Amino acid sequence: MRLSGYRGRLREVLEEIGAEEGDELEVVTPDGQTFVGYLISRPEYADEDVLTIKLRNGYNVGIAFTEGTRVRRVAAGRPPAFTRGEIPPQNPSLPKVALVGTGGTIASRVDYRTGAVRPAMTTEDLISVVREVLEIARIDAEVLLSVYSENMTPKEWELIAERVDRKIREGYEGVVIAHGTDTMHYTAAALSFALQRPPVPVVLVGAQRSSDRPSSDAATNLIGALTVAARAPFAEVCVAMHHWHSDDVIAVHRGTRVVKLHTSSRDAFRSVNAGPIALVREGSVEVLAEGLNPRGSGDYRYESGFDGRAYLLKFWPGMGPSILEHLASEGVRGFVIEGTGLGHVASSWIPVIRRLVGDGVFVGMCSQCRFGRVNMNVYDNGRDLLAAGVTPLDDMLPEVALVKLMWALKRSSDLGEIRRLMLTRIAGEIGDRSEPVRLAP
Hints:
The chain is α/β, with parallel strands linked by helices. It has helices at residues 8-16, 123-129, 154-169, 184-194, 218-231, 322-329, 349-358, 380-388, 398-411, 415-422, and strands at 24-28, 34-39, 50-55, 60-64, 70-75, 96-101, 108-110, 117-119, 138-143, 174-178, 195-196, 202-205, 237-242, 249-254, 258-260, 269-271, 278-281, 284-287, 301-302, 310-314, 334-339, 362-367, 391-392.
């Protein structure tokens, strides 16, 4: 739509000078500041007296249109658009890697209707922009999904797992999944249980900043992920993202040990109760962990399927147990509770938990502390919770425990079997011991 988002007096001025989206404008503010850039659609939720242009350096700027602001049309232009370059022939001697797109910032560009980023680029677009990846592997790219990661559900996890399993059986030497960062650690956990001991690396990768921003981390993260998929000696479900703010090192995290700990930093992903399993530096994979599943493993098992009737609850002081009874009445079959410290909730919860467990509902306990493990034998409250039927989940991350519970519920309705599955180490989600951690930088 012409001059999308503009209205009122500002729209009248733009129409008077014959401006269209993509035209180059000169804007002079009442205090004498001059801005030159290309007119783009105004975000529909912004103040109507704001003119939005894209500067020549690539950044967008909003300029208050007040009394005395002068706007001049400098030159005609075209609305902003992405044009994919031609993909050159690939080297047949390189490892064959599948790149599966599911959406997220790594495959997003600015939406000039809202000013936000939205899924827009395909994986082929990424390859055409990041030409370096063609020196790493022969890449077959496809778009499986194009969704924000907060819209992922267990059904999407199953769809992704099915596609990765197909790629493994078709003989690909690695699989990379482009994914939104906000829930990437949940998907990584789901794939860890669905694709047990895979013969090739399965690498999830995202970006904190969209690929059309000068500070984007999309290219370096993608290069790192493809390097792992093509060259790593191990075959794990893992996440590859920036190790720090600089672009020289990519950290590789085990899929059941990683969480997103920062909203916007490029090194937002960290391994908890463990270190990264590897680093990617100057095109090489430096393995840090021992006991990793080797590439070419012959005991691969495809065990997909998740039951969404599981719930993750974070306990807080004064929180009553009635929420447990309500959710159980709505059909929830299992709970993961983020308890305090070593794994505690208020004593008032104990009778309710005892009744639910007696009815066959699973209740597992994690700690809301990010580091360490639960130990419910230290205090009376913990021992009473154990007697009521709570299952302590060791040092399992709460998000991972939730995903694993969904996986376990799909496989059994028997409480004893669900407990056995939850306490069986499948993909590194339960550690052997807890090391001291320095929390301060």
